[in-house]
Amino acid sequence: MQPSLDLSELNPLKEAVVLAPHPDDELFAIDAIRQLKKQDYKVSIYYFHTPWRRRCEALNATNYLKCSFLEFSNPKYVLQDGKFHLYIDIIFREIKAILPKFSIVLCPALEGGHQDHDTVSLTCKILSSRHTFANHKFYYYSCYNAYSKFGIFNVGIPSQYYPNYRRHDIPCSASVHELLYLMFVVYKSQFKSWIVLGPIMLLLRLATVRCILSNISKVDSNSYNHIFSGIDNPRPLYEIHRRITHDEWLRHTRITLNL
């Protein structure tokens, strides 16, 4: 039996942040958000890419979820969808700056689904190894990755690209009705995406009463080497869909972060 997520003994600073590379990514962490809210945590959602229409949708989503809205607001940079890796040093500094306000961090998993998710995830994994954030709890929520070499979406199931992870089962507390409302009413601009991802998410929710988070028990140089050794089985979804090659993503992140 997998360990459940026990929040009762965590840092008394009851502030949590969900890092959402794009508006709507927080829906993949909705059950963890609900559990945190039930235990009286103040939850903020930090969005990195907020063009006007999606920013409006994100504001409506945070209002519905009763969370605080935060966004990447460095006036010198505008993050481009699909190109976060070009700004990974800036993202690293921004996340590092906001972390002292929180005791719990929910971050996308490093899973080879979307290159921007992997970029934010990598920064969190590195920061979690820093002594400054030794008392912080970092949890990783799965969005989607590749089910096969043909680029079929595998939704909400953590991959094992990263070693030493520990799985936590949590109650699936968000209802199907709630998810449908957030997908197709609040985030209606992403209708095409939800047509693909939504049915899989809903079927998984109907088939189980437990959802999954993971955290990393240890981060060290060997773990970094594992990340940078490449992902071959299956290849990252973003490479299969010809957005960017995994080698290109690895090369840029390694050079920029001096890893």
Model regions low in confidence, pLDDT < 50 over at least 5 residues: none
CATH fold-level assignment:
Rossmann fold
CATH architecture: 3-Layer(aba) Sandwich
Q: How many separate domains make up the residues?
A: 1
Taking all residues together, what is the mean pLDDT?
83
Main sheet summary: 5 strands, parallel
**End-to-end C-alpha gap:** 36 Å
Question: Could you characterize the architecture of this molecule?
Answer:
There is one protein chain. The protein is α/β, with parallel strands linked by helices and 259 residues long. It has one domain: 3-Layer(aba) Sandwich (Rossmann fold), CATH 3.40.50. It contains nine helices and nine strands. A five-stranded parallel beta sheet has the order 3-2-1-4-5, sandwiched between helices. A two-stranded antiparallel sheet has the order 6-7. A hairpin with a 6-residue loop joins β6 (144-146) and β7 (153-155). α5 (176-186) runs antiparallel to α6. The longest helix has 17 residues, at 191-207. The model has no long low-confidence stretch (mean pLDDT 83).
Q: What's a quick, concise take on this entry?
A:
The protein is α/β, with parallel strands linked by helices and 259 residues long.
Secondary structure topology:
Layout: E1 15-20, H1 30-38, E2 42-47, H2 52-65, E3 68-71, H3 88-98, E4 104-108, H4 115-128, E5 137-141, E6 144-146, E7 153-155, E8 165-171, H5 176-186, H6 191-207, E9 210-216, H7 221-227, H8 237-240, H9 246-257
Parallel strand pairs: 1-2, 1-4, 2-3, 4-5
Antiparallel strand pairs: 6-7, 8-9
Helix pairs in contact: 3-4, 5-6
